[in-house]
Design a protein that fits this description.
The complex is a heterodimer of chains A (about 200) and B (about 500). Chain A is about 30% helix and about 20% strand. Chain A has about 200 residues and is of the alpha/beta class. In chain A, helix 1 links the parallel strand 1 and strand 2. Chain A is globular and about 45 Å long. The radius of gyration of chain B is 36 Å and the shape is elongated. In chain B, helix 2 runs parallel beside helix 3. Chain B has three domains: about 140 residues, no CATH class; about 90 residues, Sandwich (Immunoglobulin-like), CATH 2.60.40; about 210 residues, Rossmann fold. Classes of the chains: A alpha/beta (about 200), B alpha/beta (about 500).
């Protein structure tokens, strides 16, 4: 059986490779707490390629304005319709930042408006429990970017299931850790990432 | 002179009435007529009912309608012996029709149409109570099985010489499906496909030895008969809540979550196991060998009538080998990319269009003698089924079937993927028959196997030609003669009365 492979989306505009350690940090967590068969390293997959459909979990991040090509947009639409789980995270966590504005426009153009994910959604309880919704990041707490704590995540759903999750909380900065670094932390900040993976694999 | 005429007319009237009475009395004991073609039965049955012969010969040039057969059966029961034979050298081909619901949430109808060899027929659906309002379903050259999403009325199988009629006679009671395996893409896509098809899926997906997504707490009632969408969501939430508590202990929300060391408090897996029973589940889908259910539990479930669907990665489950239709797996055929598979817009046909050709295949080998092959890929057996006790086990050799839904370029791939999975489940699902709600008048009109019913009513055919010799009737009463005599008597009496009036003696 094909094992879980963490895929990072490579798109033609923007800095898609801005969180290179994030896959390893999440895979480390996954191996620590679950027996789910996973590949030890992530892969990079082009958003405009057919290869995208071999990876039902894909992470996309960046700082700069995003403008999808027609092929990328069509692939993303088909990917979501076919049952893939696509995460887009704003690496700036700026509410009016370039990435946020451009990527939300792209999502609107491709799927229509984003829905707000309620803070009691099962994505917050499917492995670790987060009673208050999406966990805050140290960037939010330290007043970086727009100096706001973003209370909710946003999504595109199909048949009641989240297919595209949009976050402007900057988990890409929070989770871009080498696994060894987490040894010195009392709490593993990447735990919500495992919820995303478990949700994608079981819902 | 007038008086002589009046006497003459009177005598004619009496003679005519006597003749009519004699003909009626002779008709009661009339000997059988010559062989009658079955196509002429509707014209003769009334006559035979009025003047029942002691014996009838019917030449079966076509199969009579059910009501004519029933009429003839009633005559037979009243004392008229019925013998029959085939018309010409060729016997009429047998005809059979059955309609039954498929074990599927949509309960489509499966139509079994059996035709004799070298016989062409047409299947029709009767759309209303009016027998003339029908819709063609299919033209057949041979026996076939057809699937219809629904049926408005009776189904007819027509050939030039006969017609069979069948009604839906049952509906099925379905239970949820139990999905066992590791949390994986295969599990996720399988469960989603079956839910979207309408099945209620109780998915128990192993995340770790202590956590199973979708577990229902022991005090929760087991899922019962009602089919509803979204069952997996509800049970998964219950399981996730329990899993979260087990994993997190005091861990709650955001930065206040517990330390990693607190995670992993053991949960007694026995408490959370599903009760695998035909009262709870229509079928069990075993995705891989991580399922913790003992093989003897699964064996007992299948023996009692349950269905088991075992996937390629589940065949190594300890103790499962004795249930499966295949004893071993052949050399694995690697997965192929879908990129070069033609899309829906392409018109090419043939094996290259089958998306399952691109899937990894663990060919099924060493099939047990009772196994039946459901699907082949080239020379390899891909899907096989076997009956075990009252239940059935289907083994699937494909692996990573989810790639079909995700990667196949054909726009209809998700729908085809769901339909294929639903078909696999239908092949094994335990679906007891529910209450029968057939209207009595429909039941009367059903005639699913007319030739078999004819044989049952009148026994085997008379060997050889029925002929016309010793079965020829000595006197066959003619209804027209009876009425003619009656009219003659009446006319004579009327004329006599008129003559008497004319001479003022009436």
């Amino acid at each position: 059986m094909k094992r879980f492979i963490f895929a990072t989306a490579k798109y033609e505009s923007g800095d898609w490779e801005s969180a290179p350690n994030l896959p390893a940090a999440l895979l480390d967590l996954m191996a620590k707490y679950t027996t789910i068969d996973c590949a030890p390293a992530g892969v990079i997959v082009e958003l405009g390629s057919e290869e995208l459909f071999e990876y039902p979990f894909v992470w996309l991040t960046g700082h700069f304005p995003v403008r999808f090509t027609e092929r990328e947009r069509a692939n993303l639409r088909r990917y979501v319709d076919r049952g893939g789980f696509f995460v887009i995270d704003d690496h700036n966590h700026d509410i009016e930042g370039a990435f946020h504005l451009s990527v939300v426009e792209e999502i609107n153009r491709t799927f229509g408006p984003l829905e707000t994910v309620p803070n009691d959604h099962e994505i917050y309880t499917c492995f670790f429990e987060f009673e208050d919704g999406p966990p805050t990041t140290s960037h939010e707490l330290n007043g970086w970017g727009d100096q706001l704590i973003h209370e909710e995540l946003f999504a595109i759903t199909r048949n009641g299931r989240i297919c595209l999750l949009y976050s402007n909380k900057d988990y890409s900065s929070e989770w871009d850790l080498r696994p060894d670094t987490k040894r010195f932390m009392s709490l593993d900040p990447t735990r919500f990432g495992l919820n995303l993976i478990v949700y994608a694999l079981t819902r | 002179m007038r008086r002589w005429i009046e006497h003459g007319l009177h005598a004619v009237a009496i003679a005519a009435m006597v003749a009519a009475a004699v003909s009626m009395l002779l008709g009661q004991g009339a000997r059988p007529g010559g062989p009658v073609d079955a196509s002429d039965l509707p014209n003769r049955l009334q006559e035979w009912t009025r003047f029942p012969p002691s014996e009838l010969s019917v030449r079966l040039d076509m199969l009579p309608e059910a009501q004519d057969r029933a009429w003839l059966t009633a005559l037979n029961a009243a004392g008229t012996e019925v013998v029959w034979g085939n018309s010409g050298a060729e016997a009429l081909p047998p005809l059979g029709l059955a309609v039954e619901p498929v074990a599927d949430p949509h309960q489509p109808m499966r139509i079994w149409a059996a035709l004799g060899s070298a016989t062409a027929g047409e299947v029709l659906e009767r759309l209303s109570a009016d027998p003339m309002v029908t819709e063609p379903v299919a033209s057949l050259q041979d026996s076939s099985t057809l699937i219809r999403p629904s049926l408005a009325g009776a189904v007819l199988l027509q050939t030039p010489q006969a017609e069979a009629v069948a009604n839906r006679r049952d509906n099925l009671t379905l239970k949820p499906l139990l999905l066992l395996g590791h949390a994986s893409w295969e599990a996720r896509f399988t469960a989603a496909a079956l839910e979207e098809h309408g099945w209620q899926v109780d998915a128990r997906l192993v995340l770790s030895p202590e956590q199973v997504a979708g577990q229902m707490p022991a005090q929760s009632p087991q899922p019962q008969a009602a089919q509803a969408r979204g069952g997996r969501d509800a049970t998964a939430r219950a399981g996730a809540g329990r899993g979260g508590a087990a994993a997190g202990g005091t861990a709650r929300g955001g930065a206040a979550q517990g330390a990693p060391e607190a995670i992993g408090a053991p949960v007694d897996p026995g408490v959370l196991r599903p009760e695998i029973d035909i009262e709870n589940y229509s079928a069990v889908l075993l995705l891989d060998e991580t399922a913790t259910e003992p093989a003897e539990v699964l064996a007992a479930y299948v023996e009692s009538g349950g269905g088991l669907l075992a996937f390629a990665d589940a065949t190594d489950t300890p103790g499962l080998a004795t249930l499966l239709p295949a004893g071993a797996s052949g050399v694995v055929e690697e997965a192929q990319p879908f990129q070069d598979l033609p899309g829906a817009q392409d018109t090419g046909a043939g094996p290259a269009r089958n998306p399952r050709d691109r899937l990894e295949l663990h060919p099924l080998t060493d099939l047990v003698p009772a196994a039946h092959v459901l699907e082949r890929r080239g020379e390899s057996v891909a899907v096989a089924i076997v009956r075990r006790g009252d239940g059935r086990v289907t083994q699937v050799g494909y692996a990573d079937i989810w790639r079909w839904q995700m990667s196949a370029p054909d726009e209809t791939a998700p729908e085809a993927y769901r339909a294929w999975f639903a078909g696999l489940v239908s092949s094994v699902a335990h679906a007891p028959r529910g209450e029968h709600a057939l209207l009595p008048e429909r039941a009367l009109r059903a005639d699913p196997a007319p030739l078999a019913a004819w044989h049952a009513a009148f026994g085997p055919p008379q060997p050889g030609d029925l002929g016309t010799g010793d079965r020829q009737s000595a006197f066959t009463p003619d209804e027209r003669l009876f009425w003619l005599l009656f009219a003659l008597a009446g006319a004579a009496l009327l004329a006599e009365w008129l003559l008497r009036r004319l001479r003022n003696q009436a």
